[in-house]
Each structure stands twice: as structure tokens, then as C-alpha cells.
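Quick one, C-alpha cells below. Sequence please?
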């Protein structure tokens, strides 16, 4: 089989070329620079060529000369393909070849389906995202999610070592997204966030912890509909903390409008990164987590972890193309244009990965559930609406209306202002957003623009801690006749235990009815009297899913 690779001497295209040459394929290494193509081929083999793939005449001439069965676009950046992003794919299909690309851009990969009629007419396949994402990541998700009744969260991360080669196209893609607005599907809602934010540390294996930040990937646009997940998040990281956190600082400045699009600084950033290349390690990793519930409603979290050593990490994005080219040779890839979703099995992927200095691990991990663990068997006695609100895996929000009462004592009024409680009202809109951060839950309540926060975490068995600013209280959740009450037992202010005489009195009740979550909360303070009370209802916020094709 003859395979023509656009960007065939680049970081990822070059590694694909090397693997295909090893497999016995006739490989045409193409790009804009003939000297670079010849230098590559003199070392690794293959046939060198140079032309502008965006020029239809030049591309047609190259295809006529080499007659490839498959053309792989490994050039990018796919975000910068202009007003006619599929000109190369369209020309390849029209001239009778199969098309694959290594796109990491969500819009580009999703949009390839526009060529589906042409691909089927020609009896050829056009698959986009034939790379670590979404081809490999979707295969992992499909395997991990086997047997799930409800997928609450899909979380993926790619965390390369600092010594991994840095392609200019990949760097331009990351810099262009850093600090820019992006959409993420979290809690059945499309939410806005900033690229290179959402800091989290990943444990890949003992002694190997890496930071990751939100960044765009095809998974974000495709997985919500494909897998029916309530949340889909993707992060990436840089192997050297100095570069990783330095980029986070610049992304924050861009997000505040203090810096322009960082992609315009790709060349100087690339120069700086190369100066630090000898620092850090060549060990990198990838992690995919799928969490949710089985048909018996039991919670489960499954994790797949990949660790690459000896500089083999940069081969990973080319593994899906290697697998699919073999399948094209066998005639087992259906005609049509589509994102490369679940296009091969995880066993096939791991077999290819095992040929490199790469190890993978699949495991079920503990699934701590704050309220579910505290309540034990009583969790099942809660109404569905109450369980849904407390069934927090990532981030979710609820909206409704509330009536608010306030104490009239001057001290009560002062404290209410300090804590951000809303003014008294017979009816006002309310939104409650819950976010899981590690083993804690952060609740943000917005009553008509008056916002206050609290953080919950596990205490002793059957009890929880909730912190409002300097005050922390210990609560015991109790279910009686389908109503959840939170009984206050102890409290602290700035870490100092509060005597019972000064401990706030609270009456917290949560119930279900009419498909809604109902709350009724009254808080009073000894010697002062009524502090604040609010009661009302909430329903889950949700957005319609967008089709993948």
C-alpha cells in the first residue's frame, strides 16, 4: 500500500512515516520543504516530495504521480485551515483515495461529516481526529463505559514529558487557546470557561504527578452526544512546572484582556521552550476516567492510565493512523466521512502501544459520594429530585424561585451582609451551582444576584462539615419520611470551637414533589434571634445536545 503523509517529516507525521515504513508500506513523505523531506527520507526511508496541499492543482498532480491508497494530513494546525477547511480532504476523495487526519480541533473534526455523501459516492473513507483524541480516547471511553447505565463524567488528560519534541503547529494550537473562551459540557449545560484554566493534578503512577489545565479537543464537542455523558472535560499539561505555570499566568492575563492572542508569539515561545528541553523528563502520560452508575444504581469509577518512557510518547498520536491504515488494507473500514470515534478496539490499541516503551493500566477506583456515603442505606429512601441534586460527580446547576426572610436585629443584619445573604423578598430567582473539587463540594448560591458560597467535606462517619467563610459546622444528614434534614451538632469560628450557647440553630429540610427539589431553611442565632430563612424550589438546568453529524 502507498501512503502519502502531508507533514510527513514533522513531529507526529514523521513518527507515523517511520512506523509505516517499518510495516512495509510505500510511504511518500510530503510537505512544503523538499530539503526537509529529503533529509528525513535519507535517514528513515520513503519517497520525498514537496508541494502546496492547499493548491488543488499541485495536490492533484502529486496524487497522480504517487497514486496513494491513503492520504494522511499530519500538518495542521487545523484551527487555521481558513474558509474552506476541507479542501484537501475533498480533493483526496474526489481523486479516489482514502483520507485520514490527525486533527485535534473540535470544530474541524466534527465538521468532516459534511463530506459523507462524497465519500460514500466514491466508496472511500474520510476519518478526522485519527490521533490521541478522539480516536484513542473514544476507544478507551467505549471500553471503560461498558455496562454503565448512566455516564456522569468523562475526564481525559494528555500530559507529555518536557523532553518530548514540540511541533510548531501543536504549540500554536495551545497558545491560541490559552486564555481564550471555550465551551465545555458540564452537568448537561454548555458552560463558558477559559483555555488553560481549571487546574488539577493527576496521579499517573507512584511518584509521577502532573498538572493539567482545560484545553480544547474534539472530545468536548463529540462525546456528550456519542456517549450520553453529563460532563465531558479534557485537560493537557506541560512537563516542566515553570513552563506550565508560566503559561497559566499568561493565559490568565489574556483572559482579563491584558494580552492579545498568544498564538502570534508562537515562534518566540517555541524558541524559549527549546532552551528548556534538557530539563525535566521524557516520561509522559495520558489518563481517561469514566464515572457514573451501573444498572443497579451502584456508583463506579473506572480509570485507564498510560505511561510512556524512553521518549516514545510522541509516537502515541500516530498509533490510531497505523491501526486504521492496516484496517483499510484489509477493507474493514466502512466508506463515509466521520470523526474517528470508537474506530478500533482498546485491545488493538494496547497491542500496538506495547511495541513501544509504553505501559497501560485499567482499574476501578474508589468512588466517594459525600451525601450517599454519609446516609448509607437511607440514601435510597430519598425522593429522586433530592438524590439528583446531591448526586454530584463534576459540576451541575439548578434554578428556581425562593422566598427569603431576614432577622431585624442589627447584628443579624450585619452578619447577613458579611456572608452575602440576600435581602428579604417574597419571591426572587435562585440558582444553585455545585462543583466537585477533589473530595469536596463547593456550593454557590445566587439569590437574585446576591451570591454566597459554602464548602462541604466528609467528617466522621455519617456526618459532614460545611464551611461558610470563617464558620464551619458539623452536620448530620437524617432521612425521615422522604425528607432530608441536616442536624447541626458542632461549630467553629476561625478554628475555635463555638460553645453550645453560641452555636447557631438551624432547621434544614429538603424534599421532593412535582418533580422539583424543595428546600426550607431557617437559621437563628442565640441572643439575637432570627438570622435568615429561605424556602423555595429548584429544577436541573440543561441544554439540548448537538448532533455529532
Amino acid at each position: 500500500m502507498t501512503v502519502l503523509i502531508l507533514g510527513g517529516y514533522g513531529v507526529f507525521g514523521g513518527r507515523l512515516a517511520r512506523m509505516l515504513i517499518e510495516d512495509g508500506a510505500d510511504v511518500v513523505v510530503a510537505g512544503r520543504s523538499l530539503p526537509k523531506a529529503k533529509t528525513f527520507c535519507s535517514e528513515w526511508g520513503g519517497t520525498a516530495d514537496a508541494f502546496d496541499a492547499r493548491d488543488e492543482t499541485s495536490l492533484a498532480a502529486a496524487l497522480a504521480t504517487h497514486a496513494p491508497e491513503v492520504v494522511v494530513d499530519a500538518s495542521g494546525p487545523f484551527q487555521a485551515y481558513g474558509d474552506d477547511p476541507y479542501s484537501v480532504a475533498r480533493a483526496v476523495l474526489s481523486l479516489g483515495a482514502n483520507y485520514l487526519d490527525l486533527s485535534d480541533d473540535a470544530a474541524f473534526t466534527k465538521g468532516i461529516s459534511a463530506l459523507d455523501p462524497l465519500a460514500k459516492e466514491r466508496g472511500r473513507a474520510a476519518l478526522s481526529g485519527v490521533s490521541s483524541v478522539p480516536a484513542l480516547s473514544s476507544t478507551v471511553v467505549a471500553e471503560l463505559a461498558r455496562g454503565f447505565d448512566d455516564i456522569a463524567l468523562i475526564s481525559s488528560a494528555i500530559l507529555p514529558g518536557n523532553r518530548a519534541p514540540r511541533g510548531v503547529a501543536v504549540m500554536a494550537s495551545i497558545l491560541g487557546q490559552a486564555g481564550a473562551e471555550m465551551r465545555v459540557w458540564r452537568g448537561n449545560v454548555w458552560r463558558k470557561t477559559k483555555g488553560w484554566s481549571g487546574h488539577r493534578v493527576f496521579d499517573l503512577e507512584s511518584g509521577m504527578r502532573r498538572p493539567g489545565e482545560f484545553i480544547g479537543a474534539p472530545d468536548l464537542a463529540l462525546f456528550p452526544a456519542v456517549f450520553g455523558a453529563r460532563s465531558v472535560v479534557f485537560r493537557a499539561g506541560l512537563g516542566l512546572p515553570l513552563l506550565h505555570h508560566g503559561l497559566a499566568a499568561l493565559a490568565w492575563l489574556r483572559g482579563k484582556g491584558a494580552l492579545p492572542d498568544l498564538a502570534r508569539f508562537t515562534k518566540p515561545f517555541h524558541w524559549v521552550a527549546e532552551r528548556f528541553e534538557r530539563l525535566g523528563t521524557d516520561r509522559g502520560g495520558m489518563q481517561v476516567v469514566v464515572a457514573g452508575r451501573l444498572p443497579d444504581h451502584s456508583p463506579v469509577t473506572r480509570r485507564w492510565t498510560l505511561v510512556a518512557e524512553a521518549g516514545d510518547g510522541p509516537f502515541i498520536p500516530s498509533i490510531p493512523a497505523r491501526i486504521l491504515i492496516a484496517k483499510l488494507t484489509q477493507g474493514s473500514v466502512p466508506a463515509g466521512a466521520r470523526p474517528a470515534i470508537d474506530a478500533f478496539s482498546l485491545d488493538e490499541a494496547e497491542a500496538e502501544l506495547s511495541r513501544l516503551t509504553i505501559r497501560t493500566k485499567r482499574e476501578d477506583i474508589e468512588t466517594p459520594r459525600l451525601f450517599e456515603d454519609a446516609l448509607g442505606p437511607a440514601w435510597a429512601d430519598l425522593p429522586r429530585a433530592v438524590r439528583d441534586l446531591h448526586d454530584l460527580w463534576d459540576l451541575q446547576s439548578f434554578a428556581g424561585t425562593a422566598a427569603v426572610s431576614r432577622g431585624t436585629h442589627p447584628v443579624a443584619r450585619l452578619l447577613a451582609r458579611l456572608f452575602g445573604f440576600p435581602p428579604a423578598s417574597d419571591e426572587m430567582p435562585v440558582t444553585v451551582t455545585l462543583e466537585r473539587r477533589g473530595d469536596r463540594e463547593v456550593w454557590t448560591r445566587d439569590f437574585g444576584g446576591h451570591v454566597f458560597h459554602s464548602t462541604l467535606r466528609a467528617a466522621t462517619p455519617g456526618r459532614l462539615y460545611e464551611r461558610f467563610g470563617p464558620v464551619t459546622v458539623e452536620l448530620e444528614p437524617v432521612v425521615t419520611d422522604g425528607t432530608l434534614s441536616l442536624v447541626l451538632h458542632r461549630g467553629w469560628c476561625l478554628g475555635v470551637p463555638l460553645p453550645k450557647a453560641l452555636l447557631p440553630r438551624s432547621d434544614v429540610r429538603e424534599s421532593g414533589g412535582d418533580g422539583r427539589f424543595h428546600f426550607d431553611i431557617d437559621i437563628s442565632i442565640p441572643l439575637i434571634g432570627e438570622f435568615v430563612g429561605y424556602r423555595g424550589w429548584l429544577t436541573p438546568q440543561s441544554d439540548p445536545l448537538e448532533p455529532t453529524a
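Residues 241-255 form the longest helix (15 residues). The chain has a mean pLDDT of 95.
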